Amino acid sequence: MPRRRAFVLFELMNAMLHTAQAAKARGFDIVALNHNPLCATGPFTVPDGLVDELVPIASWADAPALDTVLKDLADRYDIAGTHSMFEPTLPHQAALRRLAGLPTTDPGTLLGILDKTRVRATLYEAGLSALRGVPLDEALAWQDWEFAGAAVLKPANGTGSALCFEVSTLAGLHAVAERVRTADVVNPLMRDYIRAHGGFVLEEKAEGELLSVESVVHRGEVGFVTLTGRYVLASDPVVEQGMQTPYHHPRLPRLAETSRAVHACLGFHHGGTHLEFMVADDGTAELIDFNPRPAGFASPVSIGEAYGLDYANVLVDVGCGIAPDLGFTARPPRYAVEMVVLPPPGTTEFRSIEFPEGTIAARATKSPGERLSGRADQLDAVGMFIVTAPTAAEAHRLGLAARREVVVNGVRLGDNPHNIVAFSEYIGRDLPAPDGRRP
Q: How far is it, in rounded angstroms, from Cα 110 to Cα 18?
């Protein structure tokens, strides 16, 4: 009897819902490997009947148990494709793709890409980065501050900008090191991933503007999708607060060229990627983070809204090893602004959130009763939403206005210090698409 064709999703959550629905529409069985329950509230609620088989995963760090699960799936199904958007699952996705004969980045290479210490050393040696990075334990043994300027401390294996701190002195480093040692990461999946791999890396801080290059890679061929500009917290630029899609930055062609070189240097072979760069005024681009997965949260929704298509179909093509059609990137776009919101200062418990009318994919990112730090911390984000408009200027205006009208625990956010964002001079401007938009 022929095996049923299956599309496997690793930790189905957020906008992965749309990818599952697009794969289901092609006639595939949907198999979800999940540690967390399937979403049952908000815009990414998984409807009854979408998932044909739900495989509970006790821990994404238990490699022997996961190997057994993957071999069983490969025996029982004809694996047509896969999709994941969460770092701890990526090596296991690669292992299943190898079992199924689908194009993939080598699992060992992928583990190296997920290790920020190894990535920085590789790029430095290849001349693709001027920044140095050292393990935290080594930096704590310094007698004097050995970098020329400030640095950023972050997990060697991290996700979602969790536990990232800027420091510029030995005293500051020791204080932050103690803070990360005792920090309570509320999200159990993030916590388990960071702790399972252990270790932090201290990297020289790159100066410039933070933005992201979104790509899909098919059998080694890097396809540029879009550039996204960032909003950051005005009082702490390490805390990301949103993005504009697309973003016609004048340095786009050079960024796309640098992105392709970084992909080749690190050996990424197949899948979606989300690369974060700092771009200096002279156009120099320093890679800050190589995420070997598509952009998270509701970014696929933003891309789809901007270009007038269901971007989930592109992700299904990539997941199935089919060369994606990126012709849509040449269309005149709308503009999407996705915003992240923090609670007011001093808030130590999340109870409720309300969003203004006209927002898209608006959802709470915390459950009622969850503890918060009371600080302006990336991990304290309580909600996200998208607005769109025909122009970048209008999308920018709507996004800033909407975040002021969000109500958290009965309090309108307004212009409280945790709700003031900073952004580049190019954000919210209707700039022409630079030559090389589709390099």
A: 25
